[in-house]
Amino acid sequence: MNIDEEKNLMKSANTWSLKHNELHQLFKDNNEFISLRVRGNTWEPITRWLKLDSRIFKGTTSRARITLCNVESLAEIYNYRSIRWTAKKLTPISTTFIPQFIRNILRKFPIIKQLAFEHEIVFYKYYEKTSDPLISIVIPAKNEEGNKELLIRALNKFRKIPNKIEIIFVEGNSKDKTFQMLEKITKDFSKVFKISLLKQTSKGKKNAVVEGFNISSGDTLAIIDSDFTVDIDDSIEAIMESTKNENILINCSRTTFPMEKDAMRWANYIGNRCFAIFLSILINQPISDSLCGTKVFSRKFFHLMKKNGSWQSKADPFGDFTIIFEAANNNIKILNYPVRYYARKSGAPNISRWVDGVKLLKVCWKYMISDI
Predict the structure, then answer these.
(1) 353-368 vs 266-283: helix axis angle to the nearest 10?
(2) In a structure prediction context, what are the per-residue pLDDT tens digits for the chain, which is 372 residues long?
(3) pLDDT at 3
(4) Most CB contacts within 10 A, which of 65, 111, 292, 347?
(5) pLDDT for the residue 276
(6) Do residues 85 and 121 make contact, with C-beta atoms less than 8 angstroms apart?
(7) Measured between alpha carbons, how far is 205 from 363 in angstroms, rounded to an integer?
(8) CA of 60: how far to CAs of 54, 55, 64, 286, in Å?
(9) 135-368 maps to which CATH number?
(10) Residue 308 burial by CB count (10 A; 0-12/13-18/19+): exposed, middle or buried?
(11) pLDDT at position 2, please?
(12) Is 195 helix (H, G, I), strand (E, B) or coil?
C-alpha cells in the first residue's frame, strides 16, 4: 500500500462543524483511519463565548462542545485506537509570517502544543488478523563468533513459533570467523526454516537491516540483534503480538525492568533515557527505549518507508530513530513492549557512543524542523 492509497482510507473532519449523527457516522463507516481536528481545551470555550454560543448567554447552544477526551472516548466505543495527537494551528490568527521550520519546532514544545488553538488526532480501526502471516526475521551479525551457542539456542526457540518463518542473517564483514560460523548454522537449519545468509555490501547496522529486509518476503518483519542480550522468549512474544495488526510498531523496551549488571554502560543508559524523553516530546507518543535493536513491524510500514526514501537514508547509523520517526509520520501506532535485558556473553558492542550520538542528534534535528 502506498501513501496515496492510505490517504484514500483516511476520513477527515473538523469536529466543531459536525452534528450528532455526522460524528457517530464517521466511526460507523469503518474507515481504516480517521483524522479529527478539535479545538484546544483552552480555546474551545473561548471561541464559543466570543460568539455568545454558551448557556451563559442563552437557553441552548447551536454547536457541539467537543474536546480531545470526548473523541478519544467515542473512538474506543467503536473499536478505534488513537495513534497520537499533534498541534496543527497555534493561534486563531495567521502565523504565516513566521518561517515554517520555526512553526514546526514550536508545535512540538510541550506547553505550547497543549495550548494550541487546533489539535489533530488520528485513529486507526483495530482488528486482529485471523490468518497466520509469514514472519521474516533479520539478524545482523558482526564479530559474533563467540555467541554461537546463543544463536543456536535462539533458532531452536524459533521452532515453537506457529507461523511459517524465514531467517535472514546479514554478516557485516567481521574480523573473526562469524561468516563461517553462520554458513554452518545456515546449512544445519536449512531443513527447518527458510534461511539465508548475506554478506553485507556496505557497513553499519542500518544498512545490514536494509539489505536483509530488501530480500525478505514476510508480512511481519522483525529485527533481532545477534548478541541476544534481549531475552529471546520476550522477543518471540513481541513478534507474535505484532502479527495481530499491521498498523502497529512493537518497540521493545529494555529499561522497564531491572537489567542484568553490566548489561548497559552508565553513559549509554543516560543517553538512551535522554533520547527516549526527547523522541517522546517530538512525536507526542511515549517512547521508553529509543535504541533497543529488537523491533517488529508490518510489510505495509516497510513499503511506506521505502516509498518516501527514509529506508535508504544513511543519516541514522542504527535505523532505530528512522523507524520511530517514520512510524509517527505514517500513522503507525508505536507500542512499547517491556523485555528482559542481559549482559553480553561474548564480544563488544559495535557502536561508538559519542560519534554515533552526534549522528542521532542530527536525525532528531531533521525531524524536529519537519512537519511530522
Answers:
(1) 10
(2) 444 555 558 999 999 989 999 999 999 999 999 999 999 999 998 988 888 888 888 888 888 889 999 999 999 999 999 999 999 999 999 999 999 999 999 999 999 999 999 999 999 999 988 888 999 999 999 999 999 999 999 999 999 999 999 999 999 989 999 999 999 999 999 999 999 999 999 988 999 999 999 999 999 999 999 999 999 999 999 999 999 999 999 999 999 999 999 999 999 999 999 999 999 999 999 999 999 999 999 999 999 999 988 888 888 888 999 999 999 999 999 999 999 999 999 877 777 778 889 999 999 999 999 988
(3) 47
(4) 292
(5) 97
(6) yes
(7) 16
(8) 7, 6, 11, 40
(9) 3.90.550.10
(10) middle
(11) 44
(12) strand
Residue from 234, 194, 184 nearest 336 by CA: 234
Cell of 231: 531475552
CA–CA dist 7, 4 (Å, integer): 5
Q: Is residue 303 packed enough to be buried (19+ CB in 10 Å), middle (13-18) or exposed (0-12)?
A: middle
- Helix and strand totals (H; E) in the chain: 14, 11
Domain ranges of the chain: 3-125, 135-368
Give the alpha-carbon dihedral of 311, 312, 315, 318, to 10 degrees.
Answer: 60
Which pLDDT score is estimated for 301? Answer: 95
Rounded to whole angstroms, how far apart are CA atoms 57 and 114? 28
To which H or E segment does residue 106 belong?
helix 100-106
Q: Which three cell numbers stand for residue 222?
A: 522483525
Q: Which long-range contacts (CB under 8 A, 24 or more apart) does 2-8 make?
A: 2/303, 2/304, 2/307, 3/304, 3/307, 3/308, 3/330, 6/32, 6/33, 6/304, 6/330, 6/331
Q: What's the rounded Cα separation, in Å, for the pair 87 and 109?
A: 10
Nine cell digits for residue 124: 486507526
Distance CA 331, CA 267 (A): 32
Rounded to 5°, the CA angle 280-122-51 comes to 105
Q: What is the CA radius of gyration of the chain?
A: 23
What does the alpha-carbon distance between residue 204 and residue 330 come to, in Å, rounded to a whole number? 25
Task: Assess contact for 222 and 205: CB atoms under 8 A.
Answer: no
Question: Rounded to the nearest 10 degrees, what angle do helices 299-308 and 320-329 cross at?
Answer: 90
